[in-house]
Design goal:
Length: 174
């Protein structure tokens, strides 16, 4: 039975690096919201009133990613999803999709101290290496970091959630 691997956490926690490793382990495609947003909408990004613009486009991308995910699952292919569902309500809405479609899934939560995450994001902005999708300015880092809501007791009790702790060389489940 095909499986969805949902990767969540605050900006700079190491989600894309972990997703690449998980994708290789499971021979599964990695669909990342940031890739879609950068490719489709970055050139049109407004200077002001960013949040309503972003939320509307994020919702459209997630709908399309969901359509592709369903097609892959129907063919027996696991899928690695990195969707930026940083708030519990957004995750609950996505869980409802998974539950309605009766799709097996595991949630991987990555986190790190804010200063470490901020340094990672700044380094990624400069190096623009394999996990780079778009520049994340300091102001956006602060907004996104402030919105992060880790899974609460109810979410942890009702979902297969694995907390991933990155060390110096690899990721390990805890």
């Amino acid at each position: 039975m095909a499986h969805v691997h949902l990767i969540e956490g605050p900006v700079g926690a190491g989600k894309s690096t972990f997703a690449a490793q998980l994708s290789a382990t499971h021979a599964a495609p990695h669909l990342a919201l940031d890739d879609w947003m950068a490719r489709l909408f970055a050139p049109d990004r407004p200077e002001t009133d960013l949040m309503p613009w972003y939320v509307e486009r994020k919702d459209r991308c997630i709908d399309q990613i969901w359509k592709i995910t369903r097609g892959l699952i129907d063919t027996g292919t696991d899928v690695i999803l990195e969707l930026g569902l940083i708030q519990r309500t957004a995750r609950q809405q996505f869980y409802a999709r998974l539950d309605t479609a009766d799709i097996a899934h595991t949630v991987y939560v990555l986190d790190a101290p804010k200063d470490i995450r901020h340094a990672r994001v700044r380094r990624r902005n400069e190096e623009q290496g394999p996990t780079f999708s778009m520049v994340v300015p300091d102001a956006i880092f602060e907004i996104a970091s402030g919105l992060w809501e880790p899974p609460d007791e109810t979410e942890r009790a009702t979902r297969d959630i694995r907390f991933i702790t990155p060390d110096a060389t690899q990721f390990s489940a805890s």
